[in-house]
Write a structure and sequence with these properties.
Length: about 475
């Protein structure tokens, strides 16, 4: 049993460690043992990961049990990095290593690699060899591929050490990169296809032989490391971007995806947005506004004007949700409404949080600007959600009111009381509008009114004119 908590008394010498019955094991075996323990006790294996229970998670579990190095393949915003970082939880809370100041690695107390550590075991008795402890969160390192050189992650001959008299054929002449320094840990590379071909050649030797060779010198180290990669399908599958030998040596390919149901996307936004809805200036968000906010991202992911190979990240939904809530909160503060309630007119501020997050398809957009594409996507999202509600509540009857000359002006800074006053003079059929989110609160009812008006406009049942932040609906 190797698991030692970060709080209990730890062995201070190699002899103490041996007396405790500690045994060496590879990092993959350590992860597998702790994973099996968590799986058997029905723990939440990947906290915060939503929507992957029946797809990604089973494949990841099997890969861990197989002891594979892994590639997470998916578009941006599909939790690839979060999944890689979550594997740290399957490491022991702390692990011992030899206290050797000039050792290049966190040396296994029973199976050291470097000459300085091996010499220490020969020169001193176990009770005189001191230990240090490596925390699990420090045993993970991550590197972005663009700009990464061979020396960064593998190593290089150190001219300063040569000048000091070290021989080029010994480890004393080497400066080690990130992967050797993560011996007994986890190393991840993001955007693998952007990695220089020379570095890829060095990597496939590590994956296959588990050793490091620098500039051909006969200095070999049996490196123990779990190597993870992430990549976008559009670049990973492009011929020549990743050398075949490296692809062949990656044990498992884990395919990620966007949420398959809108409700899962809403759960992700609620979890990741970290928006405080309470406090001195509370905000109450109707569910249909959450649906519209998420549907904007859904529509963008299938829009012919957006480059689908690039993808549309969940960060679009998160940023838009924060903007929508902030717009409502500003109104609540300025107009004295508590709680404030997001409306369709608050979506007029989504340009600030959306522009730059959509990569246009230059062939499909036909010279349209990103702002024009976004306007179309928002309109489609409102129409889609409205269609679901109109089927349930029969809201189309409301459009008949406008044929009698009714005009309604809305806006993100129009007080909710103004909506309430206006609706006192219209037929009872407007009560249908409030079935989408039953409430007697004026702010909620104002939000419902705007939703219905925007939905009727999306179905070409009424017209709309916009001027200086105000929108007027009429026939």
């Amino acid at each position: 049993m190797n698991t030692i908590s970060s709080t209990e008394t730890r062995p201070e010498t190699l002899q103490d460690l041996i007396n405790d019955g500690w045994q060496s094991k590879s990092v993959k075996q350590e992860i597998q043992d702790n994973f099996l323990r968590a799986l058997a006790s029905n723990e939440d294996l990947y906290p915060g990961i939503i929507g992957y229970n029946d797809t990604v998670i089973p494949e990841l579990n099997i890969s861990l049990l197989s002891g594979h190095d892994m590639l997470f393949l998916g578009e941006k915003g599909q939790a690839k990095s979060r999944l890689m970082r979550s594997l740290v939880s399957f490491l022991d809370p702390v692990t011992p290593y030899l206290d050797v100041p000039d050792a290049p690695f966190h040396e296994d107390p029973l199976k050291p690699l470097s000459r300085s550590a091996i010499d220490l075991l020969h020169e001193k008795s176990p009770e005189k060899i001191r230990l240090k402890w490596w925390a699990s969160e420090d045993r993970y390192a991550e590197r972005l591929a663009p700009g990464t050189k061979f020396a960064d992650i593998i190593g290089e001959i150190d001219p300063a050490k040569l000048a000091g008299g070290a021989s080029m054929s010994t480890e004393q002449a080497l400066h080690f990169g990130l992967i050797p320094r993560m011996h007994r840990g986890i190393f991840a590379i993001n955007e693998l296809p952007e990695l220089d071909e020379l570095v890829q050649v060095g990597l496939f030797n590590i994956l296959e032989e588990r050793d490091v060779q620098i500039r051909g010198y006969p200095v070999r180290f049996d490196i123990d490391v779990l190597v993870l990669f992430s990549a976008n399908p559009s670049t990973y599958n492009r011929s020549g971007k990743v050398i075949p030998q490296l692809k062949d040596r990656i044990g498992s390919l884990i395919q990620t995806h966007y949420p398959q149901q809108r409700e899962l996307g809403i759960q992700i936004v609620d979890q990741e947005s970290a928006v405080e809805l309470g406090g001195e200036f509370p905000v109450s968000v109707p569910y249909f506004m959450k649906e519209i906010c998420q549907q904007i991202t859904v529509q963008a992911r299938k829009s012919k004007y957006v480059d689908q190979q690039s993808g549309v990240s969940a960060r679009l939904s998160i940023a838009n949700y924060r903007t929508m809530v902030s717009s409502a909160r500003q109104r609540g503060i300025l107009l004295g409404e508590s709680p404030s309630v997001p409306r369709i007119s608050d979506l007029g501020h989504l340009y600030t949080s959306s522009l730059g997050k959509l990569e246009l398809d230059l062939m499909g957009s036909h010279q349209m600007t990103e702002r024009q594409v976004l306007d179309g996507i928002i309109a489609e999202a409102i129409a889609t959600v409205f269609e679901e509600y109109v089927t349930e509540h029969g809201l189309s009857e409301i459009s008949e009111i406008f044929s009698k000359g009714m005009r309604i002006e809305v806006g993100d800074m129009v007080p909710s009381s103004q909506y309430a006053e206006l609706l006192k003079h219209v037929p009872q059929v407007w009560e249908k509008a409030f079935e989408v989110n039953a409430s007697t609160d004026e702010a909620v009812r104002a939000s419902c009114v705007e939703f219905v008006l925007a939905g009727l406009y999306a179905r070409d049942m009424i017209s709309r004119a916009q001027h200086h932040g105000h929108t007027t609906y009429e026939v």
